[in-house]
Amino acid sequence: MNLHQWRDSGQYFEHAGHQIFYRVEGEGEPLLLIHGYPTASWDWIKIWPELTSRFRCITLDMLGFGYSDKPQQPYSIFTQADIYCTLLAQLEVSSCHVLAHDYGDTVAQELLARQNEGSLAFQMKTLNLLNGGLFPETHHAVFMQKVLVSPLGGLLVKFMKRGTLAKNLTKVFGPNTPPSEQEIDEFWEMMQHKDGHKVMHRLIHYMTERRANRGRWVGALQQATIPIRLTDGVLDPVSGGHLVDRYEALIPNPDTVRLPNVGHYPQVEAPEEVLQAVLEMIDANR
């Protein structure tokens, strides 16, 4: 399946006046997949066929990403969590497994916090996390992220081009697993759809939110009663091996998988290893 087939076989639903792109495929237990920043649900394509052969897979492009609307407005992790809740309610999903990456990890942490306090309308059965800023103190932002979150961010996005994305993606992928030219083209097409690259500085507010809500979101992991596994590409300069070290220090009975030759996008760089880690964990907790 190519990117345009992915788009054309998807659907849209409305949340707070905005159109949100989503896809549902497969049969069996529901599995919710939550993508990262600055890309979209297409990130899952390399593991999607295998997952849809085993699960009813549900994914969407969050507000500001991919093929969803990209309004010039403030963005929040809380709003993105609400969007997932809206979709699962429409699909009448009462429980699901969850797989998340990067920005999506923080959304999953918010959903988990709601489950822990009894306010989530569906049940998360298991949670698989890939590289992401679970702890603000271990999130080593690259230079581009630091500029985007600064007062210069609004100016920078006006000059953002494919080459900008290519340079910054290459920095966070593993040295032996760089993104292909086709993958960069696909990521860029999704980013610039509806001028999405021009809201990147608004979306990156998540870095501030993580600091402000550290107690809630780290506490969600520490207080969780469901199985959680962190699978991490340790060569990631943003959330690599140092993140796993911190996770193992803070989380009771940590379940971690280190991918030694992989960077920030393990589902793209090492899909077979990610599939093995995720399926093993879910199968062990059925």
What does this structure look like?
With 286 residues, the chain is an alpha/beta fold. It is built from 14 helices and eight strands. The protein has helices spanning 3-8, 48-52, 77-90, 103-117, 143-148, 153-156, 162-172, 181-192, 200-203, 206-212, 214-222, 241-250, 266-269, 271-284, and strands at 11-15, 18-25, 30-34, 56-60, 95-100, 123-129, 228-233, 256-259. The protein has an eight-stranded mixed β-sheet, with helices on both faces. Strand 7, helix 12 (241-250) and strand 8 form a beta-alpha-beta unit. The longest helix has 15 residues, at 103-117.
Which key phrases capture this entry?
286 residues, alpha/beta, eight-stranded mixed beta sheet, 14 helices, 16% strand, globular
